[in-house]
Amino acid sequence: ASNLRSRCYGIPRQSVFNAKGMAGNIVHAVATTNAIVAGLIVAEARKVLRYVAAAEGSDERAAVASKLRDTYVVPFPQCPGSKYCIQPTSPEEAHAGCYVCGGGAGGITLSLDTNVWTLGELASFLKKKLSMHLPLLETDEAGQLYEEGDDLDEDEVERYETLAKKRLAELPGGGIVDGTTVNLQDLSQDFNVKVVVRHVADLDEEEYPELCIWDVEGGIQPVANAPAQEEAEKNDGNGASAAGDDDDDLVMIDEDIEVLTENVQAPPAKKARRV
């Protein structure tokens, strides 16, 4: 079966013995990677727990916050016998215009036909678009209109299923029409954001396959590469650091969850062979 699938993608066929050998190597590689990632997660989780336990505004909380790190795996060509290095960096500051880390200050405008879209279709779209687990939709005029979760009563489930089939303009409280602000929450992620709905009829399906226009306010720009990633790109493209420094840092983590560095000398340059 594996050889049949390999043939579909132009991959050379392998014997049963070779296939078992490849699978064995993959298992060890995946297990090692998972162990490294799990260790880094636990290391940062301990810092977060100490941060939460510390009193607000205390020196201890500030000290713990300064040690929080985002970690990247970057190319490390100067290290003999290794291709990548684990590089920690300080977390990026929250973007004031971001509707996730900025507390919804940026806001979202969603243009669609409120006489065609149903509440269920809107909930499914927003759930997928914003990666929500248990979405809750409400408006100031009608209150809660949609909610998901295992702790809902039977009458609540029946009510939300009935409302999910209605057109947006036909919902209680005057419906979701042009200019209505929909409050979105996901308690499982401590996430909330406001979506302003605009009514637009007869959208071109070829130009807008989703039959809506998604617009994020606040002029959010893509997050710039971390310093480690920028340095890695220079090294990867030029074969050496732009600064010409032959030393690099090998990142290690000790029992106290402190980030240490150890200088690693670059391997001696190989002499060119005479042809």
Shape descriptor: extended
Mean pLDDT: 75
Low-confidence stretches: 218-275
Instruction: Spell the H/E element sequence.
Output: HHHEEEHEEHEEEHEE
Biggest β-sheet: count, sense, barrel? 6 strands, mixed
Describe the structure.
- The protein has helices at residues 2-8, 16-53, 59-66, 119-129, 154-164, 227-238, and strands spanning 70-75, 84-89, 108-112, 136-139, 143-147, 181-186, 191-199, 213-216, 248-253, 259-264.
- The protein starts with a helix and ends in an 11-residue tail after the last strand.
- With 275 residues, it is of the alpha+beta class.
- It has a 6-stranded mixed β-sheet. The protein has a two-stranded antiparallel sheet with strand order 1-2. It has a two-stranded antiparallel sheet with strand order 9-10.
- It contains 6 helices and 10 strands.
- It is extended, with a radius of gyration of 26 Å.
- The longest helix is centred in the N-terminal third of the chain and has 38 residues, at 16-53.
- Helices cover 32% and strands 21% of the residues.
- Mean pLDDT is 75; it is low at 218-275.
Give a short summary of the structure.
By secondary structure, this protein is an alpha+beta fold. It has helices at 2-8, 16-53, 59-66, 119-129, 154-164, 227-238; strands at 70-75, 84-89, 108-112, 136-139, 143-147, 181-186, 191-199, 213-216, 248-253, 259-264. The chain is extended, with a radius of gyration of 26 Å.
List keywords for this structure.
275 residues; alpha+beta; two-stranded antiparallel ribbon
Strand-helix topology:
Blueprint: H1 2-8, H2 16-53, H3 59-66, E1 70-75, E2 84-89, E3 108-112, H4 119-129, E4 136-139, E5 143-147, H5 154-164, E6 181-186, E7 191-199, E8 213-216, H6 227-238, E9 248-253, E10 259-264
Parallel strand pairs: 3-7
Antiparallel strand pairs: 1-2, 3-8, 4-5, 4-6, 6-7, 9-10
